[in-house]
Amino acid sequence: MRSVPSVIPRQTFEATTTMSTPIYGDRDPRKTKSKHRPISSSTAASFSSNLSALISSAKAKSSDSPSTAAAAAAKTNKRKADIFTSHNRNVKARAASDLEQVHKTKADLDAVSASELHRSRRKMEEKARLYKQMKRGEHIGRRDYDGQSLVDFDRKWYEDGQRRPDDVDSDGASSDDSDLDNADEPAEWLDEFGRLRKGTKREKERSERQQRIQQSASTAAQEDRAFPQAPANIIYGDTIQHAAFNPDARIAEQMAEIAAKRDKSATPPPETHYNAAYEIRNRGTGFYAFSGDAQMRKEEMDSLAKQRAETERIRKQKEEEAAAAAAAAAAKEKRTSERGDRQEAMDAKRDARAEKEVDDFLHSLDIPNAPNG
Fold it and tell me: What are φ and ψ of residue 189, in 5° steps?
């Protein structure tokens, strides 16, 4: 609680009595969060002057240009952080460690004793053997199996069979339902002793399953035996072996191998063709880059061969046509020359005949010869 001053100014006392405002309990103007300064209520003139100043400042702010407001908004939005400007912490350090790619090797890890490795290997072999037995179904009928195993496979199979009718489709077409319906049908089968047995289909399937289990168990027992099976071709007693040791056999095999290599046909080297992509340079007109694929290259070469044959055929045809035209022109020229020769001969004969006629006419006139001198 603030202390009351001993002397209250007259102006302040008059304002408090006029406005009927309590003296105590007012907020400190310096601690208020108002945007503007507190209005002094000393006089009505000061209140009206402050009010007019606030109204004029509001009008001045509202009359600012829109470009200034847009720039201010852009500046405010720019200050906000988004997912593109904010970076993950320590991302550069993690990227550098990824680039280094430092992997731990066996030398960096703690050394493991041989006894621990042997014990781990023995446990893994025991687990593998138990898993094979469970897979073959050898656990069926064993009393100690329920205590050793963590999963009751028989109960699981029974529960799956109980839930099976609820898992069928809406159309009712299910092969499992058909098998369950036909389980009580009569059937015949041969047991392990070759006897013909009669019963239901379920009993037949159970017997066949037991036979498969026994067969797989016997096969696995032979595979899992500690000692390997003795070979069947062992010779017992006194026996004379011929050519049991032949030192020349190795030499004969080497000579046969050398002869096979000598008689073997030489392997041709792989086909290599010019590749235009190996070097960058300008080629002349008519350059053709064949494909690297053998089949595509063969097709391209066949196409070029066909085009070459067609070109040669057309060229030969044109040459024959030109030769025929030249022969026709020569024959025509020959006929023309022969015709000219005949015409010249006829003209010469006509001139000789005319001269002869003139001479005959002159001789027929009997004109005396003129005296000499």
Answer: -160, 165
